[in-house]
Design brief:
Length: 189
């Protein structure tokens, strides 16, 4: 019996050192994108009105825990969202639009607004429980919106949209303060 307990503790320790488990979704400690290794900042649960909506993992190259640096750093970064319930495309687009609106910069606002409208137009397919989305920013390329391994529309060029996207999750005007807190609580430099 003691061997079984030691084995379970050992496996749990190995799992936590390599991944984070949130509501049944595993987030690996690192991912490879565009030839770069990104490190998991943290993962957490997005709730709204006591309903579990999705889990999200945030990945960056520099593995910073500073929210302002997470937003502004110009390096490959990824937000991976895994749905825990069905969400209509128009509901997801509306929620993102509200979050983006709160985080629009004063300078260059109109050009970023064009990018936001383009990105929101990509939300045509309803999301189902178990679906995943990846929002991947690559410097000098832009942000790709990938739903279930299929890119939605064209890559949104420039860094402005990526900054607003990351601000939506990590600024003081975040849409998701509980999610932000959970992700950053797991981060260590």
């Amino acid at each position: 019996m003691l061997k079984a307990i030691v084995l379970i503790v050992s496996l749990t320790t190995q799992l936590s050192a390599q991944t984070q488990l949130v509501k049944g979704t595993l987030y690996s400690e690192t991912v490879e994108i565009a030839g770069r290794t990104l490190t998991l900042v943290g993962a957490g649960l997005r709730e709204r009105w006591w309903f579990d909506i999705y889990t999200m993992g945030a990945y960056v190259e520099s593995h910073t825990c500073n929210p302002q640096i997470l937003i502004s750093v110009d390096e490959v970064k990824l937000l991976r969202i895994d749905l825990l319930r069905d969400v209509e495309a128009k509901s997801m687009a509306r929620a993102l639009e509200d979050a983006f609106e709160k985080n629009l910069p004063t300078e260059g606002r109109s050009s970023v607004r064009v990018q936001i409208n383009k990105a929101l137009s990509y939300f045509k397919k309803d999301l189902k429980k178990g679906d995943s989305m990846e929002l991947t920013y690559v410097p000098s390329v832009g942000t790709a919106i990938i739903q279930n391994s299929e890119q939605q529309g064209m890559t949104i060029p420039g860094k402005g949209f990526a900054d607003v996207l990351w601000s939506s999750y990590f600024s003081s005007s975040t849409c998701c303060s509980g999610l932000k807190k959970r992700i950053l609580a797991q981060c260590s430099q």
